UniProtKB/TrEMBL annotation:
Name the UniProt record assigns to this protein: ABC transporter, ATP-binding protein
Keywords carried by this UniProt record: ATP-binding, Nucleotide-binding, Transport
InterPro entries with a match to the protein in the record: AAA+_ATPase (IPR003593), ABC_transporter-like_ATP-bd (IPR003439), ABC_transporter-like_CS (IPR017871), ABC_transpr_LolD-like (IPR015854), MacB-like_ATP-bd (IPR017911), P-loop_NTPase (IPR027417)
Gene Ontology cellular component terms for the protein in this record: membrane protein complex; plasma membrane
Length: 218
């Protein structure tokens, strides 16, 4: 059996950006998937926004995942036939929430793309596409944003712009952001850097002390 993670203990606080770094195969995506409730741990507990999720059934887990957690992926995963606004509203469609275009435009304004609401993804740059993906992640007002290599397909300037956007959201909304990256320069913008190696946390560097409420716990 491969032990992808071993004895990892992690709390994430609202208003905090946590960067997870480490070599390829060290367990970053595995850890992110656990935090995302996409995988269940063999042992241990997981709490999201004060709610124990370790023993929840698949349906309840899906609800937590969609309602409390926003996801950003390396490859954006926008639907090419939908407009920017429709892409952003997709999670609400899944959650059967009422769609409010004014709210959508407000979220798009947050990521600087209000003017692009009616455009198709192919009419955008990579950096813009990733900001649409961030807007899509924010539309359900999540407590935590989880991003696995979100700058992996971006150039340096767009990568930095994305991290600056994360920081604005953290300061404005008290969002928690957990982000994996291979880019140490970007990781240094986080409040805490966690280094994984062979499925273990080998180093935790607290760069800025903050935190008001527990979002996820071991
Ligand atoms: N579905 C799976 N089944 C079995 N082993 C897996 C599975 N997914 C990942 N692993 C193993 O778990 C370990 C951690 O993999 P993980 O994908 O979390 O690494 P990572 O740090 O995200 O790497 P990268 O930087 O390349 O994305 C590796 O040894 C990997 O081979
Ligand atoms: Mg990975």
């Amino acid at each position: 059996m491969v032990r992808a993670l071993d004895g990892v203990d992690l709390d994430v606080w609202s208003g905090e950006m946590v960067a997870i770094v480490g070599p390829s195969g060290s367990g970053k995506t595995t850890l992110i998937n656990l935090l995302s409730c996409l995988d269940a741990p063999d042992a241990g507990t997981l709490t999201v926004a004060g709610r124990g999720v370790t023993d929840l059934g698949e349906e309840a887990l899906t609800e937590v995942r969609r309602g409390r957690i926003g996801f950003v992926f390396q490859k954006f995963h926008l639907l090419p036939a939908l407009t920017v606004a429709e892409n952003v509203e997709l999670p609400q469609l899944f959650l059967r929430q009422s769609i409010d275009r004014a709210h959508t435009l407000e979220v798009l304004r947050t990521v600087g793309l209000e003017q692009r609401a009616a455009h198709l993804p192919r009419e955008l740059s990579g950096g813009q596409m990733q900001r649409v993906a961030v807007a899509r992640a924010l539309i359900t007002r999540p407590a935590i944003l989880i991003a696995d290599e979100p700058t992996g397909n971006l150039d340096r300037a767009n990568g930095e712009a994305l991290f600056a956007l994360f920081r604005r959201l953290i300061d404005r909304d008290g969002l928690a952001v957990v982000v994996t990256t291979h880019n140490f320069h970007l990781a240094e913008q986080a409040d805490r850097i966690i280094t994984l190696e062979d499925g273990r946390i080998i180093r935790q560097e607290q760069r800025r002390r903050i935190g008001t409420g527990n979002v996820t716990g071991d």
